[in-house]
Amino acid sequence: MNEPRWDRLLLNATLATFAGDSPCGLIEHGAIALHHGRIAWVGRMEELPDAPGTLAATVESVDGSLVTPGLVDCHTHLVFGGDRAREFDLRLNGASYEQIARAGGGIVSTVNATRAASDEQLFAQALPRARALLADGVTTLEIKSGYGLDLESERRMLRVARRLGRELGISVRTSFLGLHALPPEYRDRRADYVGLVCDGMLPALAGEGLVDAVDAFCEHIGFSRAETRRVFERAQQLGLPVKLHAEQLSDLDGAALVAEFGGLSADHLEHLSESGVEAMARAGTVAVLLPGAFYALRETKLPPIALLREHHVPMAIATDCNPGTSPLLSLRLAAGMACTLFRLTPEEALRGITVDAARALGLYDRGTLAVGQRADLVVWQAKQPAELCYWIGGSLVHEVCVGGESVTT
Ligand code: NIG
Ligand code: FE
Predict the structure, then answer these.
(1) Cα–Cα distances in Å, from 120 out to 52, 157, 159?
(2) In a 3-state reduction of DSSP, which class is residue 84?
(3) CA 201 to chain CA mean position, Å
(4) Measured in whole angstroms, how far is the alpha carbon of residue 38 from the centre of its chain?
(5) Residue 61: exposed, middle, or buried by beta-carbon count in 10 A (0-12, 13-18, 19+)?
(6) Which of 87, 245, 290, 321 has most ligand 1 atoms within 8 Å of CB, for mutation?
(7) Which of 188, 374, 375, 378 makes an SS bond possible with 34, Cβ 3.0 to 4.6 Å?
(8) If pLDDT is split at 50, 70 and 90, which confidence band does 3 have?
């Protein structure tokens, strides 16, 4: 008998491919073949080239279960020390995020806890968070630095992020977020800190292979457009892509700035203007929506969804997992919140945690179920795509595959 041509063949699948023209790229009574870590065949079962049993070393039926690409969480601050439950309490009693930040709490309090934690402690605290996302179907995870704010502490955060990827067997993409907050020791020396980020930290960390992209927090309580531009220019010199926390609390025209640099994404965007949307559309910059932060801050201003649609700006959804504005550990719930709070359709929200999230990371080898893509996929205890947004909480994952290998969740 001939060698089977594929490693593994799944039959009787409801495939949400996010490729092709049908809603969600849906293929019912589908089959998907995995070989050497890639998707080798995808289509309707009846179109398989031969009797299924002869085609792969392992052939199994998933009994009509939904199969999607592995989910991509394209914006997290998952590595940090401590927590900010106390701040949650303060906010519930009327303090705003900005007031807490200006009073020396907020990001800076997490910086103190992160600096005080050992590498092992940082890793041990981040691991269950990363596991929770994986158990919810995430196979590619972006993790930002930005709670170290000195060279050694930022390096430690980025190394912990890389280690999480290795130990869990998932893809981790790192973003350097040196311009997240002004560290207390630079209180009266802003320009010196921006200089250190641009000329000291970024080139050193990039040289060590720890940086896949460069991010900044462009906001009155963060950094100005001019300061952001400086770090983007440095990133450009180093050949690194940029992204930006933009228009979260006010409109500083950050989206247009990141678009000017051909940025991968502009993230948050509640205060985004139409000219910002147009600039993003021209540059192909993805809008990353973060409904967890909107919810936790009890924000009332909605991101301009209708304008983003009108200008065909792809919309990704992410958890923004962080201790301050979004202690959210389910990307599926983020997608559900994008439907309920932002009025995205389930299809838009699901594209937002697969194909459009991959684009927000500059990744084109994942996010759809198509021949040649990485075999990152999830078999769900669900029959139709909308269920992934509809169920609130609980576990729907049956199996997660990364690069064709089943991973333990
Ligand atoms: O995406 N806004 C800036 N950064 C984070 C919050 C970080 C924090 O509060 O610790 C965000 O919302
Ligand atoms: Fe963020």
Answers:
(1) 47, 11, 11
(2) coil
(3) 23
(4) 22
(5) middle
(6) 245
(7) 375
(8) confident
